[in-house]
Specification:
The structure is a homodimer. Chain A is of the alpha/beta class. Helix content of chain A is about 50%, strand content about 15%. In chain A, the strands form six sheets. The first copy, chain A, has a five-stranded parallel beta sheet with strand order 10-11-13-15-18. Chain A has a four-stranded mixed beta sheet with strand order 3-4-2-12. The first copy, chain A, has a four-stranded mixed beta sheet with strand order 9-8-21-20. The radius of gyration of chain A is 24 Å and the shape is globular. The interface between A and B is large, with 125 and 125 residues.
């Protein structure tokens, strides 16, 4: 980390001391490390059959790359058959391209190195929800997101001990022109947090801008050799990758920055309506996307993404927290492990408009397979409402509490002598409670996860305090967190250079909402 | 089923035809059969160590049987060392007593044989919550339960395609004297449902009354040879079994009826505050309780129960949906499988007073390990609020919907040709959606679980319909279900005999609230 230390060194030791104090205040793990074996819902034979089906889709149907001549050229050079925009892949080609050079694990460096995240293996990284045009809180109801909302969610994520990653488009800042939003968004992640973040993908030049901003912060040489920007690239399912997304992927890969190639499948519409079909298609699309990234730059960090939802037969609306996408998630995690690349899926999904029982049940129904299945990067881990159309302040607080619980669960069963507590049994009579026992007194503080959002008091006490539901309690919590927020230190010169660069860029072309 | 057919035969074919029509209307499975391997959170070595620790607790500390001379005598006769009320067990004694004669699987016969449930193996049986003095609905708020509430929950459970078992004390009918409640409760299960049910355990004579009522319905000979009543017997943790509960267990076991011997542990108070200690203690207590049942009557059906909750360090209040009891649940399910008896645990637990996001998150956090861990009998699967103090009408509806989801999840991934849908891929161009594809049209109806409680409509539509949260929607649902309720047929003569028997019994001793 020579480069960053040197750059930080410019403002002397004060920022460093501040950073040390801050990290002592916010005690946290840079990512979650699972100790339990991932849950498998299919046998090896079943998984192998899905791989065969994905190979058949790649070979017999193929994938279309729209308006992307570079992709067609790269794949033709690698031995695929190109017919118009359709690419058909000899059996195993994509898999071998990915397995040959895609790193099984990689590190994304954060502005504060204590927050570096490692993708892959038994690690799970939580990031907030992504991409909603609306925000919602109990006071203002549902409204378009603004850059102030964006900054608020960056700050709330920074303050969370359980969210490891600052995310990307935590909400759309609709008050900023579409073609200049990425400057303010990336700046917010850099200025209001020191956790790792995601860059823009809506246009290739916006991806390049995101990397350029990172170069100002981390140093050019450092960025050449380290991954400091992460990005979300979606397929246009079924079986299509589009130019704008591929262009962004190319920009990041060329700069050795990380992309997650993610089929986004509303099963029944964008794939056949069965779990096995959705899985085979997702594998085929992701393999083609990741192979493209490896052809652009062998060894560029890439993540296998999967987003799958079911749909309502009555309305065609996406539905969340249902059993079938949970099965898809378990299967895709297994397939990614077999492939040997980091896997992204999951999230606190719901179709509910508010942070009610539907929202919590549906979110839990996705987060459980996310953790038990062994997902490495969890986008949408907090705040998601209304099928992703809205980012909820109260929902964010409640989801975040659940992420804390997962940190405790992931540690598994403590089988140490203290955990077994045989001495406690041998020194306690039947019928005598353990409340005052030395073993209890020694362990109580850390024994159980303490939820800040749950109310465990008596009915009478709860009623006396206003009979608040969970969302109402959460409302007070995000306000207090924002009120107490203190920005992490940043080198003044870097911040000034960044601001000036953004101003110059913004001034160099007219506003547009395309 | 000769006996029941004969008894039913008394009123001729009409009831039989009605029953046939009814079961055609309510399409349901008599119990859930899991296809996935249970999730294990501990290695075989870890589980063996907990068994060793339980053996040490049984041998070195022992279990107390309070005011239960018959238990002391039975255990002394079996080779245990009895000192006052304390029984110390030679290593492996309890385990060998249980494994020698306790059935690994057994059937509880229902009044409608289509509803018979089989305990053990890969089966999971859902029953409503049990034991709350209060009920809650959105209209009336929280209030003491009445016999009308009790009957309502029996009816709602009967109407559910996902609840397999009518349960027991679905709420306390506080308007009926304590010493006569069991007559009205057991009668309600028999009259307003034809699913299997649980009998009274508060006094040995009430357990015997419950069996006597079953004899009137099923016939004496039939009851001698079949299990028709199930019951919940709790330990008085730590390491104590009490006379009243043991007396009830004895009454059921002597009649060859089923008991679940359940340590009920608030960890930190009733056990040491660690997962491994809570598990070893639960195993020790359950082993002693089940061994007692087998000594009373070798081969009597018995279920290994576990109820574990964490507690709030601040208040001492029980807390639910936290990670540590989830780990306990997984471990206990594994230990029960190793022992070879059916296992009871789980439930839609919450400390929340209302059916809000807290309630749903906490409930999901217990129901996920319940299903994934492989629990055989799930008490409290619907309705539980406020740490069990309240039975919620809306919560019941929302929980019940989740049980439906579990039925879909438990089937696992369909790897049939139709499930793989390769023909669909080979007949669909990239970029063309699958909505109108013949494969989708053939599968859509059954493709995804359809939640009756979730709102998946657009924000505008949802707002136009009154911006209802999940609890508000659920309120309308339980009312409609009760309005549409039709009682299952019952032999008029049986019903009359039962009512007369209850009247005679009730008249034979004065009311009392003890």
């Amino acid at each position: 980390m020579t480069d960053m230390t040197e750059r930080r060194g410019r403002t002397g030791g004060r920022a460093g001391r501040q950073a040390a104090r801050l990290s002592a205040q916010i005690e946290r793990e840079p990512f979650l490390t699972r100790t339990l074996k991932p849950v498998e819902v299919l046998s090896d034979e079943g998984l192998a059959l899905l791989e065969t089906n994905a190979d058949r889709i790649l070979e017999e149907v193929g994938i279309e790359f729209h308006d992307a001549p570079d992709a067609l050229e790269l794949f033709a050079g690698a031995g695929a058959s190109v017919d118009g925009q359709r690419v058909r892949f000899p059996k195993g080609l994509c898999r071998s391209l990915v397995q040959a050079t895609a790193p099984p694990e990689f590190t994304q460096v954060a502005r504060n190195r204590a927050n570096d995240v490692v993708f892959g293996g038994r690690r799970t990284i939580f990031a907030p929800a992504y991409g909603s045009p609306f925000v919602r809180d109990l006071d203002g109801g549902r409204r378009y997101g603004t850059i102030e909302d964006f900054r608020n969610f960056v700050k709330l994520t920074y303050a969370s001990p359980w969210l490891h990653h600052s995310g990307g488009t935590v909400c759309e800042p609709v008050d900023v022109p579409v073609n200049k939003r990425h400057y303010d968004m990336v700046h917010a992640h850099i200025r209001y947090s020191d956790k790792p973040f995601m860059g823009s993908v809506t246009r290739p030049e916006r991806a390049r801008d995101s990397v350029d901003m990172a170069r100002i912060v981390f140093g050019e040489d450092f960025v050449d050799e380290h991954t400091v920007v992460f990005s979300l690239v979606n397929a246009n399912s079924p079986l299509v990758w589009d130019a704008s997304m591929l262009g962004a992927a190319r920009a990041y890969a060329e700069a050795n920055q990380a992309v997650m190639m993610t089929p986004f499948v509303l099963a029944g519409a964008m794939s056949p309506a069965t779990v096995a079909a959705c899985c085979a298609q997702t594998l085929a699309e992701a393999l083609a996307g990741m192979a493209y990234v490896q052809l652009v730059r062998a060894g560029a960090p890439v993540v296998f993404g999967s987003f799958a939802s079911s749909m309502s037969m009555q309305s065609g609306a996406p539905t969340f927290g249902t059993p079938e996408p949970a099965l898809v998630l378990y299967v895709m995690a297994s397939l990614a492990r077999r492939l040997g690349v980091p896997f992204r899926s999951g999230g606190a999904f719901t179709a509910s408009k508010v942070a009610d029982a539907q929202a919590a049940y549906e979110s839990a129904n996705t987060m459980q397979p996310t953790l038990l299945g062994g997902v490495n990067f969890v986008l949408h881990a907090a705040g998601w409402l209304e099928g992703g159309l809205s980012m909820g302040y109260e929902k964010f607080v409640l989801d975040n509490d659940q992420l804390g619980m997962w940190h405790a669960f992931a540690r598994g069963v403590d089988m140490s002598e203290n955990g077994q507590a045989m001495d406690a049994f041998l020194t306690n009579e039947p019928g005598t409670h353990f409340l005052g026992h030395p073993h209890t007194l020694a362990n109580f503080e850390q024994a159980f996860y303490r939820s800040p959002t749950s109310d465990n008091s008596s009915f009478e006490q709860w009623e006396g305090e206003g009979a608040q539901d969970a969302a109402t309690r959460a409302n007070a919590m995000w306000k207090r967190t924002l009120a107490e927020y203190e920005a992490p230190p940043i080198d003044d010169a870097v911040e000034q250079e960044l601001r000036e660069w953004i101003e110059r860029k913004k001034a160099s072309f007219p506003d547009s909402n395309v």
